[in-house]
Amino acid sequence: MDLTWSPEEEAFRRAAREWLAAHVPSPPLPSGDTRAGFAAHLAWERELFAARWSVVSWPEEYGGRGASLWEWLIFEEEYHRAGAPARVTQNGVFLLAPTLFRFGTAEQRARLLPRIAAAEDLWAQGWSEPEAGSDLAALRSRAVRADGGWRLTGHKTWTTRGAFCTHLFGLFRTGPQDARHRALTYFLVPLDAPGVTVRGFQRLDGDEGFAEVFLDDVFVPDADVLGEVGQGWTVAMATTGSERGLTLRSPGRFLHTAERLLELAREVGSGAHRDRVAQAWIDAQAYQWFTLEQVTAIAGGHEVGAEASLAKLFWSELDVRLHETAAELLGPEAELAGPWSKGFLFSLAGPIYAGTNEIQRNIVAERLLGLPRR
Amino acid sequence: MRFRVAEVDAALAEAAGGVLAKLTEPADAVWRGLAGAGVLGALVPGEAGLDENCLPPLMETLGHAGVAVPAAETIAVGAPLLAELPVLGGVLDGSVLLTVSLDTEAPVPFAADADLFVVGAGDRLRLFRREELGITPLASVDASRKLARLSVPSRGGVVVGEGASVVETAWLRGVLATAGLLVGLGGRMVELTVAYVRQREQFGVPVGSFQAVKHALADVVVELRFARASVLAAGWAQAAGEADTGVRTSAAKVLASEAARSTARAAIQCHGAMGYTTEYELHRYAKRAWALAADWGGPAEHRALVARALGLP
Ligand SMILES: Cc1cc2nc3c(=O)[nH]c(=O)nc-3n(C[C@H](O)[C@H](O)[C@H](O)COP(=O)(O)OP(=O)(O)OC[C@H]3O[C@@H](n4cnc5c(N)ncnc54)[C@H](O)[C@@H]3O)c2cc1C
């Protein structure tokens, strides 16, 4: 065990901290899940990119700093500590980009990655459909062969910030329905293509952060198939590891919420809440240690796989507990609109998206413990 | 930055694991076997040359085996205090049984059988021989812990440690070791339960294919894995002398105690009536888990210590 940072890592931390201290918008931006807020967030993300802090772990040729995983974690910790805005480009940066690095052609990487880094192309995730949530392999949106490409028809939903994005990555059926996950293909679709209709709708917190996307005979060239035809499931599952595990859920986010909770407790708390606050803080620390353990394993060449489900279960339940504890502390004030009530409503989504926690428990039981499927 | 057990520490745990794979009973034979493998002197200055980083993996291995030996008391706390004394040889070869009590109000594990006792009072740690103390054996849920209540004379004994920081170190090592044992116990209970629910059939299928059973086990695995990472982090903090060592150690003990209790509960439930019998080995691990969850400070006590360190009202 060696939990000390090297002098280079400490220097990296200082540089990130200094830059963030000088640039993080104050007062905080409006929610990025509203149209006006989204525009303000984009301006911020372009500033981040101009200073090369938007994709620190990417190679320099794509706009990154070639930072190590450890440095990336450090950056995330500083980012959250500084109270910097949530990343509205996260689907492109944290879900599509890792998939492009792994499955994309050289042409796709060169064409798409710099635009993701620069917050020029804004990507939405088009997986779920009205009849295909947990049972994603049941999806019905189809792609049929056309001259030089494919024609896409179908209906995607619960697409985060779909109404504000410019592009969609998603799964479409390229074979028979009963072939389930064996006949899917991963497509990249511009949302301004003829035949695309996007309708925004409200989330639980009232923001217009969701959208349905209707596709009616939308043409996509062969160059925008990601991975092999018929291999969409494999490509998509490689992405779920990122979604559940590390990349979206840096411990910095929960450590920062735990710190804010401590401040709140010192301000308004009484002995009645002491245990819950202490426990919430203990759990946020545990999440950090577990993450460091996983990052060490990844850095040593280990594939995280089903272990990402352990992390997903823990961070999502932790986020709910942190916010419920804040609500306890706030008492009747908890009802007022503000960062804590907003955060509480959002925390309730964690156990649902990126594969519900019930599905994660099945994965842990079947893949890590070897219990029989049914 | 490297969150991984170092080779020397893993080697010690492996040596212990090798002994435990060959010897499972009786406890004193296992203890002598561990002594023979050099495990007992892990933290004794001038012996193995290890620090607290070795405790989490070692204790996890010992907890997993579930043998009734004074692992936390002797290896983590007592033996390192005897470095200068002639009795050390007997303790390290397993012929002299040592236990520790930093809270003389509480029942003391292994006290009914021990030959030597390290007893803490105030800022002082003293070593007594059995005949110098009053010892009242107590019946307990985990009968193999050989509990007794001590009556300690206000004078006498040999001073083996003095000063608040020496006592604090002894306490933190005991807490850490106990947390490690709990993680190991939890892991063993999960293994037993997984094996059982895979072969036990009801309604024509293994009960392990039922989602209620799967989810109960998945939840405790999450608790255990996060507790384990926290125990490793606490071990490192102790060895490195980090400023927040006390908080990290308390946090680890809270998580390990809660995880082991949840696991005992889920394991018994998933075994059905088979879990509610002493015919089968699960009960031993569950009883040890309940005992150790409360030993060296239960979750409420450690949570309160964390709360105080964080300045909570
Ligand atoms: C905030 C938020 C953002 C989202 N963003 C996107 C996005 O950008 N793109 C996108 O494609 N999707 C997105 N989603 C959708 C998300 O992926 C789905 O909600 C999720 O996969 C669950 O599907 P469902 O909602 O249809 O629930 P259902 O599958 O209908 O499940 C309903 C309930 O039944 C349970 N259940 C279902 N199957 C099982 C089973 N086998 N065993 C046990 N329990 C089961 C579930 O756990 C759940 O409790 C988002 C969701 C939320 C909440």
Structural class of chain A: alpha+beta
Query: Main sheet of chain B: which strands, in order across?
Result: 1-2-3-6
Q: What Rg of chain A do the Cα atoms give?
A: 21 Å
CATH architecture of the largest domain in chain A: Up-down Bundle
Describe the structure.
The complex is a heterodimer of chains A (374) and B (313). Chain A has 374 residues and is α+β, with helices and mostly antiparallel strands. Chain A has helices at 7-23, 35-50, 69-81, 90-103, 106-117, 232-244, 251-268, 274-299, 307-330, 339-347, 357-368; strands spanning 123-126, 142-146, 149-156, 167-173, 184-190, 196-201, 210-221, 225-226. A four-stranded mixed beta sheet of chain A has the order 1-4-5-8. In chain A, strands 2-3-7-6 form a four-stranded antiparallel beta sheet, with no helix packed on it. In chain A, strand 6 (196-201) and strand 7 form a beta hairpin. Chain A is globular. With 313 residues, chain B is of the alpha+beta class. Chain B is 53% helix and 11% strand. Chain B has ten helices and eight strands. Chain B has helices at residues 7-22, 27-36, 55-65, 71-78, 88-92, 164-199, 211-240, 245-271, 282-294, 299-309; strands at 98-101, 116-121, 124-129, 134-137, 148-151, 158-162, 201-202, 205-206. In chain B, the strands form three sheets. A four-stranded mixed beta sheet of chain B has the order 1-2-3-6. In chain B, strands 4-5 form a two-stranded antiparallel sheet. In chain B, strands 7-8 form a two-stranded antiparallel ribbon. The longest helix of chain B has 36 residues, at 164-199. The radius of gyration of chain B is 19 Å and the shape is globular. Classes of the chains: A alpha+beta (374), B alpha+beta (313). At the A-B interface, helix 7, helix 8, helix 9 and helix 11 of A face helix 6, strand 8, helix 7, helix 8 and helix 10 of B. The structure holds flavin-adenine dinucleotide. Flavin-adenine dinucleotide is lined by residues 125-128, 133-134, 158-160, 349, 352-353, 355-356, 358-359, 362 of chain A.
